[in-house]
């Protein structure tokens, strides 16, 4: 795996060279992890012109065993990467790395201005002795867009864990339990099945809370006749997926519930079927959003129909009306339309898929929990 | 409670006026919450010269019920505070607030340069039309140092919840259970007893993992003869406390375990007893650290002996050898020495206390779980 990270750093190095930048200072944790395989808290990576890359990090705690709970990942650098412990225990690794850049005569330094605070940027500038500084922008995020097969394999396992946790919940008694307890139980099951941690705070919404994207679980209890919306994800080796489903509680759904479910189901299917290399992100959004707008649900629909996933749960590309750009093969995205009717509740259906060309069988569905309207 | 927040904003306004600053733009979430009582994600607060404060936030989700899980707090602004929804759904509330500052002819704008990224700072500058911008620095963090009785009351309840969760765990069978399961169970109990969420990721370390500050729970199981170190905290109405204890598993501790425990216990007591208004923070650290250094444990001891708590779990003041400043009354801090012996484990004891003058009975201990060496 170490070669994978070295190759990624080489690609960043090429981009820097093409832009006339001497060295890149990477501080955003997911970007550090992408380029090194590890992300010790507060670490900073210097990608230099000659392959002399250095990871500056804090002294690892004495009990460091590479534990991955919390998703921070292994805390020690791979063998092929020079790593150095932050000289001052209360210092800033980015400042220490910038000092090394100055000493190595890199010429100029690009930093992540969308991640560094103004105060840290000033501290870095104060040690670089007039060396020109520029904005690295989203260069590493761009590299992260298209996933390799190792990354997709991790996402597949993350999706399998989320499906398992959700499947077990469906076999248990739900009526009378609170949203908070169901959410906590799902998170416990994710870890039981091997997740590093939950990919994001699990959302469980019942009755009037159902159908929204980011409902924070409350003490409301599941009741007969409710819609129940669940949205959860696992983080596995740093890679995060998500799955969302809506069920109905009791013997048979009401007419309005069946109609609303069918509408969202069809919108979500249209979005999934629109995924292909070369398709504009906004067109996938349009395919998903169109049926909901046509049915008069403009108000209750979110600003986006889906987004990329990977080392972060919400990455590029965005699937929204204003999104620029087109999909590539091997880009994992969510498709997650929903409709919420104030006071009544609603439906959300959320899958993680990998964009694949038709020749490879079209989009690969990672989250395979059934999308039938189950009455539980 | 609304007056409390208005009074806090007035204090910030006075500081700004004294520094010749027209308006302050507050973006750090804990600071926004301190000044408004709420902290909708991505919100920004403009504190203007004439009391015309404005909170800019995203449109609340349709199911907003002020749910507090996750510790984000109520999502809607109090009645006395003008609030406005971010005009562009994918915009930046800080940029929108800066536009309002320009329109209000505030004259100059101080921003939180330790929180804003370089990219956001640039976006703000681009809409302020040449209005002078300066650094607000830690002005709000300074206001947050000394807590009022409402804040201390919330911390007391947070401590009570953490003590309850820990107490229940001690009554259960521990041998054979994994660190991860014990940590998850503690977090569930925190929520069961009314916590908004865990104040930080619960740490459970057994055997060779015991005695460290931030051990990430693993699948290691509790064994007879182990030291077991637990560190957890509750977040209640946004306020976060912590408690840490070390126990021994089995019938009787070994001689080295008793000796090490006594050493850390005495160090922690010395630190607690050193807490008083007017005492230098570094002297509290010295009182705590001294016994450990004298016993030859320089290597295995952390860089700090404690820290402030409040809306964040790690706030000013720091109790460390290099800390400047003195303690004030009504400042809650942790005292948490520990010694870790590589390969064997160790002891940590961690309390949250409020600094009080001797006339008021001296430091107020919030976390009252026993510090006897229990054999479980």
Automatic annotation (TrEMBL), chains A, B:
Residues 8-146 form the Creatinase N-terminal domain. Residues 53-81 are annotated as: Disordered. This is M24 family metallopeptidase. It comes from the Bacteria. The lineage of its organism: Bacteria, Bacillati, Actinomycetota, Actinomycetes, Kitasatosporales. Residues 154-356 form the Peptidase M24 domain. Gene3D superfamilies: Creatinase/methionine aminopeptidase superfamily, Creatinase/prolidase N-terminal domain. It comes from Actinacidiphila epipremni.
């Amino acid at each position: 795996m170490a070669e994978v990270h070295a190759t990624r750093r080489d690609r960043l190095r090429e981009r820097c060279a093409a832009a006339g930048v001497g060295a890149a200072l990477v501080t955003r944790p997911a970007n550090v992890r992408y380029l090194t395989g590890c992300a010790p808290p507060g670490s900073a990576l210097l990608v230099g012109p000659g392959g002399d890359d250095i990871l500056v990090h804090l002294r690892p705690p004495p009990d460091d065993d590479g534990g991955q709970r919390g998703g921070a990942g292994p805390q020690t650098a791979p063998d092929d990467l020079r790593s150095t412990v932050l000289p001052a225990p209360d210092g800033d690794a980015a400042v220490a790395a910038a000092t090394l850049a100055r000493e190595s005569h890199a010429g100029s330094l690009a930093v992540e201005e969308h991640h560094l605070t103004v105060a840290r940027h000033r501290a870095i500038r104060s040690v670089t002795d007039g060396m020109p500084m520029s904005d690295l922008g989203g260069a590493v995020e761009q590299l992260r867009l298209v996933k390799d097969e190792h990354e997709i394999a991790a996402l597949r396992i993350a999706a399998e864990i989320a499906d398992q946790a959700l499947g077990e919940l469906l076999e248990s008694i739900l009526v009378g339990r609170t949203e908070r307890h169901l959410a906590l139980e799902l998170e416990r099951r994710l870890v039981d099945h091997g997740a590093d941690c939950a990919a994001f705070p699990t959302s469980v919404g019942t009755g009037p809370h159902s159908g929204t994207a980011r409902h924070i679980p409350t003490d409301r209890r599941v009741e007969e006749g409710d819609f129940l919306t669940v949205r959860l994800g696992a983080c596995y080796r740093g890679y995060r997926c998500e799955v969302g489903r809506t069920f109905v509680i009791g013997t048979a759904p009401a007419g309005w519930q069946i109609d609303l479910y069918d509408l969202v189901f069809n919108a979500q299917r249209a979005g999934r079927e629109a995924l292909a290399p070369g398709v504009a992100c906004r067109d996938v959004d349009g395919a998903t959003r169109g049926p909901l707008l046509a049915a008069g649900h403009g108000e209750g629909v979110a600003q986006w129909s889906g987004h990329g996933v990977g080392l972060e749960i919400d990455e590029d590309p965005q699937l929204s009306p204003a999104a620029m750009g087109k999909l590539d093969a091997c880009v994992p995205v969510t498709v997650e339309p929903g409709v919420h009717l104030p006071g009544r509740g609603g439906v959300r259906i959320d899958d993680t898929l990998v964009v694949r060309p038709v020749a490879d069988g079209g989009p690969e569905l990672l989250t395979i929990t059934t999308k039938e309207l189950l009455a539980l």
